[in-house]
Every structure is written in structure tokens, then in C-alpha cells.
């Protein structure tokens, strides 16, 4: 609590001695305007420099308040105005920035997702309470003759929940000053197979960068396609996350003639120790439907792997709509596990 006299006590003193002079400390409390609270502070403007960049480059955004921030600073909400949220911008800002106490402005580095067409405009807004300021940054595609994403690799294809994959992206030429951000996305977007940052920065002067991918599959084997993108240059990898227990799952639609997309699934060994490998038998309850594990010649899943992918084959004689039960039996291991799927066409 402030130890200075209250306004009412000052008024009472004034009535007792009309001609008395108020002490300076008391006069300051009575007559000086109160400092604005964080809720009353307004955003005056926001800008980006440079206002035009090439995909992957860094820019600096500045937010300016109408008056200095009060004690504790002011948190400013940051948003992009795209139809679909710019996940790269979200990662670089977490949608917030704080203007320190006593300051009117703050500047911070930002990244926005790369563009596939020239002159792509990303609108950016900064707001506090009911006040909002807007700016934009124009993004051009990168020249594929000079720069490109040439490769995207992972250290393994299957990982147990709670463990990690390591991804590596490589670009054609050394990254410029400030580094070069390569966008990372997964399909389907909501897949619970894996999680990872929305971009990785290749440091200035380097041609590669690594990043961690978390396996998040918790109940059954799950699959996601991960894309590394820089403008129209795109590289893909398919990853499978499996739970910590022995499990089996079908990872996509199953058809008679799948074409370029193979009917497939995965057996997960979880975190169960298998130093001499694991021999798995796959059986179907439906004649005409078979499954084949992708394993070395000895037929076992190696000790270094958390599971294995398998292919599913459906004979033309199996009617569309047939429900199939597929069972994985671990020789000298845990009890069998099963999954079901429907033949789609």
C-alpha cells in the first residue's frame, strides 16, 4: 500500500486550514495523472524490415505503443491474416511479444512460411485490448537455379512413443546471413504419429541442418508423411510411430489394386527388449488376403528396430466391404495382437 495520505484526508486537512500549503508528496498524489495500466495502453503501429524478402529469409518486426509500457510491461498479441494459419510465423513468435516496462517499442526476428508465387503478401497484426495495428511482408519464391532443398533424410523409419527420429535437410547452396528457414509440415496435419518444429534454420554458410522428431503414437501404430519445403522445392519422408507395447496397425486404405499407393501396415515391438531379433508371423482370417513383413532374409525384426512395415495383398475374389482380421504372433514373445480393416474397392 502507498504510505502517502489519501485524497479524502487531504480534503479534510484543507477544510481545517484553508490557507495551508500542501506538502509536495501529497500534491503529487492529488494532481499528477495516474500512469496508464497495461489494459489501457494502445498499439500505435507495427512494421516489418525488410518489407520484402525471399522465402526462408529472416525479417525484423517492430511493435510501437502509443505511450511507454507500465510496470510489468505490455504483452502484445501477434497474428497473421492468412486464410490458413502461418505455422512458421507462429513458431517464431508464439503469437506474443512483450514491450518492456518504460519502453514504447520492441523489435524481434520473425520467419513466415515460404511462397510458391511471386509477390505473396502475408498480413501481420499486433493488438492490445481493442487496439490493433497492421503491416505486411511480401515473400518471393527462391530461385531454384541458385537455392533449393535437395534432400531430406531421417535416421530411422519407425520409432517408439517417447523416443526420437533425427531429420536432416540439405540445401543446394550455403545459407545467407541470418540463415535460411526450411518449412516442415506433416500429412495428415492432425496425425498423432509424430511431432516436430514447423521449420528448421540452416545456419549462415551451412548447407544442412538437423532437427528432432518426436514419436507420439500412444495407442497403435500411426503414420505421417513429413515434408521439407522451400518455395516449390519439396522433399518427403514417411514415418511410423508405434506405442510402447506390442502392437499392429493398418496404415491406410486397403484396396484390390492400390496402384502407386501400397496397401501397408506396421508391427510395433514397443520398448520390449529383443536382443536376438523378433520373429513375427502374420495371419489373416480371410482367404485371399495375405500380409508380408519387410524383414531381412532371416525373417526376424533386428534388435536395432522398434518394428517393421508389412504389405497387404487382396485377391480379386475378395468382395468389396469384406472385414478382415489380421493377427501378429510374436514367436517366444508376448500374446498375439490383432487389428481389423475393411476392403474398400
Amount of beta strand? over 45%
Q: Uncertain regions: pLDDT < 50 for 5+ in a row? A: 1-35
Element string (H = helix, E = strand): HHEEEEHEEEEEEEEEEEEEEEEEEEEE
Indicate the radius of gyration in whole angstroms: 30 Å
How are the strands of the biggest sheet laid out side by side?
2-8-7-4-5
* SS-based class: mainly beta
Task: Assign the CATH topology of the largest domain.
Answer: Immunoglobulin-like
Major β-sheet annotation: 5 strands, mixed
Count of individual helical segments: 3
Taken together, the total number of domains comes to 3
Text of the CATH class of the largest domain: Mainly Beta
Let me know the number of strands. 25
Q: Which percent bin holds the helix content?
A: under 10%
Shape: elongated
What would the average pLDDT be, to the nearest integer? Answer: 90
Look at the structure and name the CATH superfamily of the largest domain. Answer: Immunoglobulins
N- and C-termini, Cα separation: 75 Å
CATH architecture assignment of the largest domain: Sandwich
Amino acid at each position: 500500500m502507498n504510505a502517502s495520505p489519501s485524497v479524502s484526508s487531504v480534503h479534510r486537512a484543507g477544510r481545517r486550514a484553508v490557507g495551508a500549503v500542501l506538502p509536495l508528496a501529497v500534491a503529487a498524489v492529488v494532481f499528477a495523472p495516474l500512469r496508464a495500466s497495461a489494459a489501457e495502453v494502445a498499439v500505435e503501429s507495427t512494421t516489418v524490415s525488410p518489407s520484402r524478402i525471399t522465402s526462408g529469409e529472416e525479417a525484423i518486426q517492430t511493435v510501437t505503443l502509443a505511450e511507454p509500457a507500465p510496470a510489468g510491461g505490455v504483452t502484445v498479441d501477434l497474428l497473421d491474416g492468412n486464410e490458413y494459419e502461418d505455422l512458421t510465423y507462429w513458431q517464431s513468435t508464439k503469437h506474443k511479444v512483450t514491450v518492456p516496462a518504460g519502453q514504447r517499442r520492441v523489435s524481434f526476428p520473425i520467419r513466415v512460411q515460404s511462397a510458391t508465387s511471386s509477390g505473396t503478401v502475408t498480413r501481420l497484426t499486433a493488438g492490445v485490448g481493442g487496439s490493433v495495428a497492421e503491416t505486411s511482408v511480401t515473400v518471393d519464391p527462391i530461385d531454384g537455379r541458385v537455392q533449393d532443398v535437395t534432400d531430406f533424410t531421417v535416421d530411422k523409419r519407425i520409432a517408439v512413443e517417447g523416443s526420437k527420429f533425427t531429420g536432416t535437410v540439405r540445401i543446394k547452396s550455403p545459407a545467407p546471413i541470418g540463415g535460411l528457414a526450411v518449412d516442415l509440415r506433416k500429412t495428415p496435419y492432425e496425425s498423432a504419429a509424430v511431432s516436430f518444429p514447423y521449420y528448421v534454420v540452416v545456419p549462415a554458410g551451412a548447407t544442412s541442418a538437423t532437427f528432432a522428431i518426436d514419436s507420439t503414437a500412444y495407442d497403435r501404430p500411426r503414420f505421417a508423411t513429413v515434408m521439407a519445403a522451400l518455395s516449390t522445392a519439396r522433399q518427403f519422408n514417411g514415418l511410423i510411430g508405434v506405442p510402447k507395447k506390442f502392437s499392429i496397425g493398418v496404415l491406410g486404405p486397403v484396396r484390390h489394386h492400390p496402384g502407386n499407393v501400397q496397401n501397408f501396415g506396421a508391427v510395433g515391438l514397443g520398448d520390449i527388449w529383443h536382443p536376438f531379433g523378433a520373429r513375427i508371423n502374420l495371419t489373416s482370417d480371410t482367404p485371399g488376403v495375405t500380409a508380408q513383413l519387410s524383414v531381412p532374409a532371416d525373417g526376424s525384426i533386428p534388435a536395432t528396430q522398434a518394428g517393421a512395415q508389412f504389405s497387404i495383398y487382396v485377391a480379386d475374389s475378395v468382395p468389396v466391404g469384406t472385414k478382415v482380421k489380421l493377427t501378429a504372433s510374436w514367436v517366444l514373445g508376448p500374446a498375439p495382437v490383432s487389428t481389423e480393416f475393411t476392403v474398400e474397392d
